[in-house]
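Support request from a user on the community tier.

User writes: "When I paste my structure tokens into the form, the page sometimes reloads and wipes my input. The last time it worked, I copied everything first. Here is what I submitted, just in case something in the input itself triggers the reload:"
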């Protein structure tokens, strides 16, 4: 009798009927067409270690790898990109500027960033990416975007863990 009860209870638990269906995965971030920011009061001073990019159906993606806690960040559209500190122009078209409260070097000045300094993937919307600075606790990147004159492609930002990374999707025009 106990065996029958335990077998029935196991079947009920495995089917999910006792506690209902599993919770849905968290929703994707909203597509944005204006500046955005996120603050992590516990972020400390993490390190940006890499940047990768890829193209997918309907959007282009940039992944920024982080060592430590996820940093606070700002994202805004710009007409042109400039180098932090010097203000020198970065040779890519305007688009989305991203800044992070982070470092890309050690306390002795050794770079911890192994990603591209300037790359031109030539994807449908993401035309170029550039490291625009690692200056006074702020790491910057420029995304050169193309979507027609005066059109800003929407973007969304994901904060992902294990491993720590920030993902920026730029929707195709």
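"...and here is what came back when it finally went through:"
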């Amino acid at each position: 009798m106990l065996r029958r009860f335990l077998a029935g209870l196991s079947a009920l638990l495995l089917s999910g009927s006792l506690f209902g269906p599993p919770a849905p995965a968290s929703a994707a971030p909203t597509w944005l067409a204006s500046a955005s920011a996120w603050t992590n009061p516990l972020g400390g001073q993490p390190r940006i270690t890499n940047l990768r990019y890829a193209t997918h159906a309907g959007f282009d993606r940039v992944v920024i790898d982080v060592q430590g806690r996820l940093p606070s960040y700002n994202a805004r559209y710009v007409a042109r990109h400039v180098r932090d500190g010097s203000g020198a122009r970065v040779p890519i078209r305007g688009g989305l500027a991203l800044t992070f409260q982070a470092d890309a070097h050690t306390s002795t000045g050794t770079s911890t960033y192994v990603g591209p300094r300037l790359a031109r993937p030539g994807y449908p919307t993401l035309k170029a990416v550039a490291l625009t600075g690692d200056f006074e606790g702020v790491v910057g990147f420029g995304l050169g975007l193309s979507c027609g004159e005066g059109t800003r492609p929407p973007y969304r930002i994901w904060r992902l863990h294990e491993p720590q990374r920030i993902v920026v999707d730029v929707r195709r025009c």
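Agent notes: The reload is a front-end session timeout and is unrelated to the input. The chain has one domain: 31-171. The radius of gyration is 21 Å. Escalated to web team.
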